Amino acid sequence: MQIRFFKVRIPFIRPFTTSFGTEEYREAIILHMNKDGIDAFSEIVTSFLPDYGYEYNDTAINTIEKFLAKYVADAPQPHEFLDRVKGIKGHNMAKGAVEMLLWDYHSKLAGKPLDDYMGKSRGYANVGISIGMSDISEMKEQVRSAVSLGYKRIKVKIKRGRENIVSEIRDEFPDIRLSVDANGDYSYHDIPLLKELDKFELEYIEQPFRGDDLIYHSKLKKEISTPVCLDESITDPEKAEKAFEIGAVDVINIKPGRVAGLHNSIEIAKIARENNGHCWVGGMLETGIGRAFNIALASQELIDYPGDTSPNEKYFRKDIVRNPFRMKKGVIEANKGDGIGVYVDFDALFSYLVEAATISI
């Protein structure tokens, strides 16, 4: 059996800016496995730089090739794969890509759509939008467009010194579900600044402090009325348990790649519900392949907030799937084909291809 890698570089319709920096294209790595006549696909959600975390594209490929691929030869169930690789520390995005490859394989083997195979699905995802930083007039125009298109939640990226966009948006749209994402740009000394955001009645502030912190988030939550959402700080179910135990979190942004796949994503969603918290599904600017896993997860009844699961057309003029997701009235329906239910457009994939490799298992 073999696992194939396809590294593609797809230009964004517009650059996407966060406190980490600006991305002008998505350099994605697609995994493909054929076993028993079943073609399974997944996407590594790393970037070409170690900016979101320590993993990046080259480390992920190397980790899969040297340490993870050998555990896939008999196509174990996803949770069995995670048990096999628990001795390999970290590298959740590499693990998650392989784990999700197995989800696609097993749901196709069972002849079921992934969202139904995973658990109790409502059949659709409630869709929010994440708007990157740019000048205020452009961001406001993107918000107007998103509201007119029916997105169920608007989230804008902020950083220290760029909070004024919140006031500008609230003045024009006093009733929309609005949240902000700091990507860890603030410190504990900025609490007075963050308290100023309370007056805007945000749904939450996402990841105000560093990704390796829980303690200061716990202290912050006692000082502000805005709910605290954690992203980078939650890397596994145990971290989610700790965050709720010490009062560091109200809402969790679940990114399957960040937490080593869908199995842990579901466990984290259960933990949030057990602790009267909330959760939603975030994205890593995925292609239609990675996005299919996010939509399947966001369709689960355990997921109660709209996520960053915008349709493909928001990011790419041409995706690498033939049946990209479409949004209608703030909702994207989960695919009902077997597995992830998307069909790879190999002509498009090869037009974006920058590197390919094969691992024999």
Automatic annotation (TrEMBL):
Signal peptide: none annotated. It is an enzyme of class 4 (lyase). One of its GO terms (molecular function) is O-succinylbenzoate synthase activity. It comes from the Archaea. Its EC number is 4.2.1.113. PANTHER family: O-SUCCINYLBENZOATE SYNTHASE (PTHR48073:SF5), O-SUCCINYLBENZOATE SYNTHASE-RELATED (PTHR48073). Keywords: Lyase, Magnesium, Metal-binding. It holds the Pfam family MR_MLE_C. SUPFAM superfamilies: Enolase C-terminal domain-like (SSF51604), Enolase N-terminal domain-like (SSF54826). The keyword Lyase applies. This is o-succinylbenzoate synthase. GO terms for biological process: menaquinone biosynthetic process. It comes from Thermoplasma volcanium (strain ATCC 51530 / DSM 4299 / JCM 9571 / NBRC 15438 / GSS1). InterPro entries: Enolase-like_C_sf, Enolase-like_N, Enolase_C-like, Mandelate_racemase_C, Mandelate_racemase_N_dom, OSBS/NAAAR. The keyword Metal-binding applies. Residues 136-227 form the Mandelate racemase/muconate lactonizing enzyme C-terminal domain. Its cofactor is a divalent metal cation.
